[in-house]
């Protein structure tokens, strides 16, 4: 069982020390912090950054008041290293789909990782890796999760400001469908029959894909209390195949429990000749 995730962050001292750590990831969520542009100076004034190798080779040893952790656990070394990060951190915030749900690399959880090693590396015997890619919360206690692939930089600024103020971050958890309504985007599933995960996906992107006639593929993970079984069965009833649904459910947030359960069920029913 995964350690609990606390979504309320207690107050820290007026200018908390911050560390940013990377595990298996593409660095995109760390870059979101550097891309804050106008907000970056204000952030620098609110916190004292002591460890952020993406931005500077200079660092100071912990402990740290706050740690932002990007990336999933895919190696035995990282499984040990995250324990050390947790010990050094007063509050640990996971950022991005890799850290919160295993990331796109969690697709290997449904395959033989030894096959991948033999295919990619000339000398796979030198590679030390785990058979799975797992979120940080499966290894240590997490105080707050910020989802997305990549994260929404405005939400990141909000979380940092909330930490300094000692209040609950105001990060929305409604589904992408509400954002489509706000944008005036016609529902592509209703109008065009394009399968879309918008009804079960948490907001954060601004509903970009449906605005360009592309179904939502869940880059911000499951919304609050998503009914993934209902939506997949509805899509199957209207002609969407398991081969179309499985790639939607198994992508950036494939290991998120709600998407994983739905994807496994659709795959099992498809292989047995049943519907989704």
Automatic annotation (TrEMBL):
Entries under Gene3D superfamilies matching the protein: NADH:ubiquinone oxidoreductase-like, 20kDa subunit
A molecular function (GO) term: hydrogen dehydrogenase activity
Keywords: Homeobox, Oxidoreductase
Top-rank taxon, per record: Bacteria
Family matches, as InterPro entries: Hydrogenase_assoc-protein (IPR051349), NADH_UbQ_OxRdtase-like_20kDa (IPR006137), NiFe_Hase_small_N_sf (IPR037024)
Transmembrane regions listed in the UniProt entry: none
Listed name of the protein: NAD-reducing hydrogenase HoxS subunit delta
Naturally occurring in which organism (per UniProt): Maioricimonas rarisocia
Gene name of the record: hoxY
